[in-house]
Design goal:
By secondary structure, this protein is α/β, with parallel strands linked by helices. It has helices spanning 3-20, 39-47, 58-70, 116-128, 152-163, 187-203, 225-230, 240-243; strands spanning 29-33, 52-55, 77-80, 107-113, 133-138, 168-174, 212-218, 235-238. The chain binds pyridoxal-5'-phosphate. Pyridoxal-5'-phosphate binds at residues 33, 35, 56, 81-82, 176, 221-223, 237-240.
Length: 249
């Protein structure tokens, strides 16, 4: 199986899940998670038509973004999908050497704003650079201690202060489901995230809070992306099913 075959299969499975939920496959963005994988495989994936790529470490993201640009690949939309350590927040804006379009970050979306402190820091850094960052808020719907993110109730409490930050645009929610053998077990968690997004749209409506668009649900990985799509995912983050197993994290 080549990467193009894998990609084709993942897209076909996404379309099947969308159909089962009476949704259009066009509503769902596939982010190819290329962490630990070399630029050669990213190039192969891009050549097969893939535009959105995700990395969980910002240093690795920028190394690859710079290398991809230097190699003349078609422009890639980069997604920062992992937790950002406070002392690395500056990297979310990119290294000074990287040529971003004016007023924009080359990272199109930061998926895992998981605590007020990192939101404050990202907003301050973005404001200093005359930028606005598109972010998702990470929610720990399973309540597992090992998972990052706001609790659903904690997020509702934190939102008034988050919405006061000047340079973040809240595009939706993200979650990492626990790994289970049967994806059906995590269906209720995906449903909970969708319900929480609906609640936020109602409590903090975009008409009143234009800095909150609430359009995205980033949920679903190799083991559960079809169930996530059936439950309303607009973005799925898939690594292993496209690139094969990772040798290290
Ligand atoms: C690694 C990773 C993924 C992809 O995981 P796979 O199981 O390989 O599809 C998705 N989201 C995040 C945040 C990740 O770190």
């Amino acid at each position: 199986m080549t990467i193009a075959d894998n990609l084709h299969q993942v897209r076909a499975r996404m379309a099947g899940a969308a159909r089962r939920a009476q949704r259009s496959p066009d509503e769902i963005t596939l982010v190819a998670v290329s962490k630990t994988k070399p630029l050669s495989l990213i190039a192969e994936t891009a050549a097969a038509g893939q535009v959105d790529f995700g990395e969980n470490r910002v240093e690795e993201l920028w190394q690859k973004a710079e290398a991809a640009a230097a190699a003349g690949l078609d422009p890639i939309r980069w997604h920062a999908i992992g937790t950002i350590q406070s002392r690395k927040a500056k990297l979310a804006l990119g290294p000074p050497s990287f040529q971003s379009p004016p007023g924009k970050s080359a990272i199109c979306l930061i998926h895992a704003v998981d605590r007020p402190k990192i939101a404050q820091r990202l907003s301050r850094l973005a404001a200093e650079n005359d930028r606005t960052l598109d972010v998702l808020l990470e929610v720990n719907v399973s309540g597992e201690a090992s998972k990052q993110g706001f609790s659903p109730a904690g997020l509702v409490d934190a939102l008034p202060a988050l919405l006061d930050l000047p340079a973040l645009r809240y595009c939706g929610l993200m979650t990492m489901a626990p790994y289970v053998d049967d994806a059906e077990e995590v269906r209720p968690l995906f449903r909970d995230l969708r319900c929480l997004l609906q609640e936020l749209r109602h409590t903090f409506p975009p008409a009143q809070f234009p800095q909150a668009t609430w359009q995205h649900l980033s949920m679903g990985m190799t083991s559960d992306f079809e169930v996530a799509i059936e439950e309303g995912a607009t973005i799925v983050r898939v690594g292993t099913a496209i690139f094969g197993h990772r040798e290290y994290e």
